[in-house]
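A common beginner's mistake is to predict each chain separately and then try to dock the pieces by hand. The better habit, illustrated here, is to supply every component at once so that their relative placement is modeled jointly.
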Amino acid sequence: MASQPLRRLRPTTGWVAIDLHELVEFKDLVLEFARRDIKLRYRQTVLGIVWVVVQPIVAAGVLNFAFGIVAGARPQGPSYFLFTFAGVLAWNLFSWTLSKTSLSLVGNSYLISKVYFPRLILPISGTLSTLLDFGISLAVLIVVQATYGIAPGWPILLLPIWILLILALALGAGFIAAALTVEYRDIQHILPILIPFMLYASPVAYDVSQIPGGYQRAFYLVNPLAGLIVAFRASLLPGAALPPLPYLAWSVGLAVGLFILGAAVFKRTERKFADVV
Amino acid sequence: MSSSALAVAVRGVGKKYTIRHDYTAPTTLGEAIVRRVRHPFARVEREQFWALRDIGFDVYQGEVLALIGSNGAGKSTLLKILSRITEMSEGQVDLYGRVGSLLEVGTGFNQELTGRENIFLNGAILGMTRSEIRRHFDAIVAFAGVERFLDTPVKRYSSGMYVRLAFAVAAHLRSEILIVDEVLAVGDQEFQRKCLGKMRDVAIDGRTVLLVSHNMAAIGNLCSRAVVLRAGQMVFAGDVVGAIAEYSARDATVLVGDLRERHDRVGKGEIQSTSIALVGLDGVLTRAIKPGQPFDIVVSYDAKVPLREVEASINIESMDGTRIVTLASGFRNESFSVLAGAGTFVCRVSGLPLRPDTYSINVFLSGNHAFYDHVERAISFDIAPHDVYGTGRLPMRNEGALIADYHWRAAQPDLTSNVV
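With all components supplied together, the output reads:
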């Protein structure tokens, strides 16, 4: 009779902890959303998954042309194409995750106002489907590398860490953008301008060593993604160096910090989503 | 009921919305920033509006509880709080079981995905695990009758198939507490009947249903208790008959059918009905009559010229247009002489033994082989659920239109021959 309720609902205020146990409870929904994303993206396309392969190759080619041939900024190293390809992969992971996360609430507003689930599920499932595309293009990179006769060395063991940190940075910024977008739709217009701008401000098709020495420090400080892209590439291409440790630490700290801050902001504003969206 | 265990305990729940009293509220980030910079200490005037306040009631396991109220009374807000879509501003709710909410049929259905894919997606959205869905998959498909179209995108489904599939998934939700909003409002009669039947099964299973509907007949059929909300306040919590009476007396929208603006009438028009109303013997206008309860149907008229031998007639029809009964003054050789001007005809009905449902009335004025005026669906009214048999059970829609007075007894051939 006086049994404990399964769940007690009360008004919450301020910062709320993320209920990891609940996220696990909803894991089937996470997978189902990711499955939906993946299926819808390539339904009614003729080439389907081939696009995942083609996109980074074309992007790397175009950037090589613009930076290497037109601007004459080809960095030192054995293969400029592989250099850019690796950069594009890291960049794609960041930009896809950021833009998808920022739209995850507004894009699913019809669900948010009709059914309950932890709202974090939306960006998480979006990230899963991004990771699939990323994984495929990473495999392509390894294959292309093999045709160049290049085998990755031990630094590849650190690759998952850099991937997680790039995700953390993108998700952190994305969480905040998503929460803001609910109330201010401007964010939807700002990000498509900001993201390409960030591409040129990141060492995707050029090397940080090509930046005049005095500016390198400012470059790393202003763009926390820079250190992570360089580190990501260093894990894949033999001969590519890690960024100087203080700058790398700065990037790592910022990625982790932004992720925690973003998740907290998302969670704090979550309770308003259904009322505003 | 009080012997059962609690399923939901609602205590002092309130939901506050803040309305800005500010005609130039910022709608873009830019405006918001500019304003902050220009008037850093300005406080936007805000008014607090309580969409719900001091709501408290218990729901027991195996019970179907209805939430009744007119539009804007706060029913949907309460359902959203209970299903955790939105958060309450004060109070507390204890849930003694897993909650599944159906605020619409087919939430998250995706047009591009196939029936099979949508079953898994929609099921997961409703809170089912993949293995649960797999276990019920065949039953869902059979219930919806879409076996042949499982691998067709649902955008190619007929709307009937779509709704059936969506409902089939929802019907197999196994949560202990089900929250249902107006699901009964969609689909055809057959589908609504299926919904009602399914909800009854859910309750028989010992699970709990919280239901919002405007269909008083359905509520009367399904629910034992109800909560009536009015302007965010709880004005009644108790047995369903009392709740419907409370709602009908104060909130039901149309008590008097104004017919003056009805231009779809036919007839010569020397005399026309101007309004129609149902009045209980206590003299109070009503929209809900209990089966067998006596009442008056009052038809007001306006006659252009004096007329003799005017006959008035009423058809009562079910909402699907089936004619249930005709109350013609002619059958009783009752006809009237009227002067030019306004007046009323009153039909005293000593009782309608109809199954609780919504019905409509056609009004017909004629006489002297003349056909003066005919208005179809002049007003609708409810036969209110009433425990005619004293057992809490009433016939469902597929069990007939009438409520008859009857008793059963059993007899067997006398085998012992010394017992009479």
